[in-house]
Design a protein that fits this description.
mainly alpha; 2 domains; 252 residues; single chain; Four Helix Bundle (Hemerythrin (Met), subunit A); Arc Repressor Mutant, subunit A
C-alpha cells in the first residue's frame, strides 16, 4: 500500500513540475503540507521528495525545503519523468531528443549485433518479425483493431530489444532501454498502420537480413533508413500540433 501511494503521489508531483505548476526556482509545499494534501504520512511525503531529488527535479535545502531545478538538470530518461514529459506540451521536443540519441546508439548496436549475434538470438528476431507480419496480415484482412495494433507494437519493441541484446554490450543495452520505453509510450503518435506493408515490414526485414548476413555496414544502412522513417513520423506529428494550435498558420 505504501509503495503504491508513493508511486501515485510521485507521479502527480513529477507531472506538476513538468507542466510548470511548480516552476524552476520555486519551492514545493512543505512535507507536512504534502502529507495533508495527499492524506499520506510525513515519512511517505519525505520519500517522495527524496525521489524527486534523485531524478534531478528538486534540490533539497535543509531547513528550507525542496526547490525545483531547471529542466536541464532533470533526468529525462527516468521512467516517471519521461512519462510526464510525453504527456506535456514539451512532448515533441523531448521525443525529438530521444530519437536523436537513439539513432546515435542504435546504429552502433546494430553493427555490433551483426558481428556478434548468436543463432538463438537470430531465431528470436525471426519470431518477432513473423509476429509483426502476422499482426499486419490481420489488420489487412479484418481492419485495424486494438489487439492487432498492440501485437505489432510489442513485437516491434521486442525486435529492437533483441538487437540490443545481440550487440553483446550491456552498457549500450542499458542506455537504450529507457529510450525504448519512451518510444513505447509514444507508440500511438508514431504508429502508421497504413504504411506497414510498404515501409514498416520491408525496413525491419532489411535489418534482419543484414544481421543474418553478418554484414555490419548493411545493418547500419538498414537501421538508418528505418530510423529516418520514424523521425519523419515525428515531424508529421509536430506539424499536426502546429496546424491545430489556436491561431496557428502553417506555411506549406
Amino acid at each position: 500500500m505504501v509503495a503504491r501511494l508513493h508511486r501515485e503521489v510521485l507521479a502527480v508531483l513529477v507531472a506538476e513540475i513538468v507542466d510548470g505548476t511548480f516552476a524552476p526556482g520555486t519551492w514545493l509545499p512543505r512535507e507536512v503540507d504534502l502529507a495533508a494534501r495527499f492524506s499520506i504520512s510525513r515519512g511517505t511525503s519525505r520519500e517522495c521528495i527524496r525521489a524527486l531529488e534523485e531524478r534531478g527535479l528538486v534540490s533539497v535545502r535543509h531547513g528550507k525545503g525542496a526547490m525545483v531545478r531547471p529542466d536541464t538538470d532533470w533526468n529525462v530518461l527516468d521512467r516517471e519523468v519521461v512519462t510526464a514529459l510525453l504527456s506535456s506540451p514539451h512532448r515533441s521536443r523531448v521525443l525529438g531528443e530521444v530519437l536523436q540519441c537513439r539513432r546515435a546508439l542504435e546504429l552502433t548496436a546494430v553493427e555490433l549485433a551483426a558481428e556478434r549475434v548468436t543463432s538463438a538470438q537470430l531465431d528470436q528476431m525471426r519470431t518477432a518479425y513473423r509476429q509483426m507480419e502476422q499482426a499486419v496480415a490481420r489488420q489487412v484482412q479484418f481492419g485495424e483493431d486494438p489487439a492487432s495494433e498492440r501485437a505489432f507494437l510489442e513485437a516491434d519493441l521486442r525486435f529492437h530489444r533483441l538487437i540490443m541484446e545481440a550487440s553483446g554490450n550491456r552498457a549500450l543495452a542499458q542506455i537504450l532501454e529507457p529510450m525504448q520505453h519512451a518510444l513505447f509510450l509514444s507508440r500511438y503518435q508514431l504508429a502508421r498502420p497504413q504504411a506497414r506493408l510498404e515501409r514498416g515490414l520491408p525496413e525491419h526485414l532489411s535489418i534482419l537480413q543484414a544481421i543474418e548476413a553478418r554484414d555490419p555496414q548493411a545493418a547500419h544502412r538498414a537501421m538508418a533508413a528505418h530510423l529516418s522513417t520514424v523521425e519523419s513520423y515525428r515531424r508529421e506529428v509536430e506539424l499536426q500540433v502546429v496546424d491545430t494550435a489556436p491561431g496557428s498558420t502553417r506555411i506549406a
